Amino acid sequence: MLGLKLPTDPRWVNIVEKNIEEILTDHAYCEQKAASTAISLIIGFPEKSELVKEMTALAREEMGHFNMVHDKILKRGWTLGRERKDEYVIELMKFFPKGGSRETHLVHKLLYAALIEARSCERFRLLSEEIADKELSDFYRNLMVSEANHYTMFLKFARKYGQKEEVDQKWNDLLDYEAQLMKDLGKKETMHG
Q1: 145: CB partners within 8 A, 6+ apart
Q2: pLDDT tens-digit readout, 18-36
Q3: Residues whose CB falls within 8 Å of the CB of residue 117, separated by 6 or more in sequence, listed in order
Q4: At CB < 8 A and 24+ separation, what contacts does 18-22 make?
Q5: Considering Cα of 130, then 82, then 66, then 39, what sign does the dihedral take?
Q6: Do the Cβ atoms of 121 and 155 come closer than 8 Å?
Q7: Closest by CA position to 106, among listed 148, 161, 47, 60
Q8: What is the 3-state secondary structure (H, E, C) of the chain?
Q9: Nearest one of 59, 48, 149 to 107, comparing CA atoms
Q10: C-alpha 154: how far from its chain's center?
Q11: Which end of the chain has the least Cβ crowding within 10 Å, N or C?
């Protein structure tokens, strides 16, 4: 369904279970960054009314998810830790060349966002099925559905604002690149890394 070319090694859940506090902190910041991405798309492309409307709703939803994760942290007697670098996103963002038209820049941002959401959805599914913590299993099952919707929305907008054949080729190339990245990731208690 997600089109990912390399699934996460299920042993990643074992790493996560050894440091739930760390994964929740990382997850909280991922939700905050997703809201920031939505806001940056509004700021960068205000003339795209349908996109603005969807990104406004998405920013609210992602901040709602941030709040839900933050509540889980507080419920366990912890506090939100410091933000970490997301090595996955840093490496992913190197794929498309810099420059180009505004439309090309928009398509690239949308494809990056679609892939990040797809990988998050895949990780949430894995957590929902494999993590021993029943509360977190249920929590990630519910979030998984939301992330799948985000992935398809970003891909739909990329195809709307770019030439479909070209966008589909870029998407497939990005999926191949991401699969290579994932070979070296999945060894830390972070949502993507």
Answers
A1: none
A2: 999 999 999 999 999 999 9
A3: 34, 147, 148, 150, 151, 154
A4: 18/189, 19/189, 20/76, 20/133, 20/136, 21/73, 21/76, 21/78, 21/81, 22/81, 22/189, 22/190
A5: negative
A6: no
A7: 161
A8: CCCCCCCCCCCHHHHHHCCHHHHHHHHHHHHHHHHHHHHHHHHHCCCCHHHHHHHHHHHHHHHHHHHHHHHHHHHCCCCCCCCCCCHHHHHHCCCCCCCCCHHHHHHHHHHHHHHHHHHHHHHHHHHHHHCCCHHHHHHHHHHHHHHHHHHHHHHHHHHHHCCHHHHHHHHHHHHHHHHHHHCCCCCCCCCCC
A9: 48
A10: 11
A11: N
Question: Which residue is associated with the tokens 């902190």?
Answer: 25
Question: What amino acid is encoded at 149 in this protein?
Answer: N
Q: Are 144 and 128 in contact (CB under 8 A)?
A: yes
Q: Indicate the pTM of the whole model.
A: 0.94
* CB neighbourhood size of 98 (10 A): 8
What is the distance between the alpha carbons of residues 70 and 79, in angstroms, rounded to a whole number? 8
User: Phi, psi (5° rounding) for residue 96?
Assistant: -80, 140
Cβ atoms of 107 and 161 closer than 8 Å = yes
Which residue is it, tokens 């939100």?
80
> 25-76: per-residue pLDDT in tens?
999 999 999 999 999 999 999 999 999 999 999 999 999 999 999 999 999 9
Question: Tokens in use for 59?
Answer: 């920013």
